[in-house]
Design goal:
The chain is mostly helical. It has one domain. About 75% of the residues lie in helices and about 0% in strands.
């Protein structure tokens, strides 16, 4: 029991740290879970701690979420436009994710895939950051519908573990002419319906794994993920106003190469 609680704390910290940074929370949880020998039937633990991270976003942006809700209820044009953009950006991942989720879980959730996507994702971030492009969109609520849909299509890459949902949406948004801060904020808002929907589906599908003897462990992971994610969201909003994502790119490349070396030398198996 004590080892499970320690694992819950460690994995909660990892989830909170990595969910909204462009370094892939899923990839880190896959590797860390294997290293810790942590059993997660139906991925229920991973799903619940992701909900902790999402709650952190809701708390941080509670004022904007309230204004959006009031605006939609009163048929305010700007609020309706923002809601339309969120729906359009969520649709691609929702449709493709529902269709391919079982296949991806069976074939892609392993360390070799994570190692490869970590390196490739890092190289992609460097290439995108070195492009010279003047942003044309500075408010996530005012994006053209085609740009919002384009961000959603970029986000499809994140269905592969190790790619990073936040990274694909933020960097994809930047490629489509959204400035760094607006792309980051839009990514946060997209995370709410995407992760709530994915979590709800998995919890319904694997509800039998939510047993009473695991509730304490899951609750610890949830709280830790919430607290850490809240701090990360606050920090990241400030960070992107002044700096680029190149340090995260190099982290991804080094981490991916290290995983590859561990696999090739037999320290890791290809689980």
């Amino acid at each position: 029991m004590a080892s499970d609680l320690i694992s819950a704390v460690v994995l909660g910290i990892i989830e909170g740290l990595t969910e909204f940074l462009p370094i892939s929370s899923t990839g880190h949880l896959v590797v860390a879970g294997r290293l810790l020998g942590f059993s997660d039937p139906g991925e229920v633990f991973a799903v619940v701690i992701q909900l902790g991270a999402i709650l952190a976003v809701c708390v941080y942006f509670h004022a904007k979420l309230w204004r959006l809700t009031c605006g939609v209820l009163t048929l305010d044009p700007s609020a309706l436009r923002f809601l339309r953009n969120i729906v359009l950006a969520v649709l691609p991942a929702a449709v493709v994710g529902l269709s391919l989720n079982s296949w991806m879980e069976a074939h892609l959730f392993n360390v070799p895939v994570v190692a490869a996507t970590m390196v490739l994702g890092g190289l992609a971030i460097i290439a995108i950051e070195r492009r010279t492009q003047t942003p044309v969109h500075h408010d996530p609520a005012l994006l053209p519908w085609t740009t919002a849909l384009g961000v959603g299509c970029c986000q499809l890459l994140a269905l592969v573990p190790g790619v990073s949902r936040s990274g694909s949406s933020i960097l994809g948004g930047m490629l489509l002419g959204i400035d760094r801060r607006a792309a980051t904020e839009f990514s946060f808002f997209l995370a709410i319906p995407i992760m709530l929907g994915a979590s709800a589906l998995k919890l319904i599908k694997h509800r039998d794994a939510l047993t009473s003897d695991r509730v304490g462990t899951i609750a610890v992971g949830f709280v830790v993920a919430f607290v850490v994610a809240l701090a990360v969201v606050h920090w990241l909003i400030r960070y992107v106003s002044k700096r680029d994502f190149i340090p995260f790119a190099w982290y991804r490349i080094v981490a991916g190469l290290l995983l590859a070396v561990l696999l090739l030398t037999g320290v890791f198996t290809s689980f």
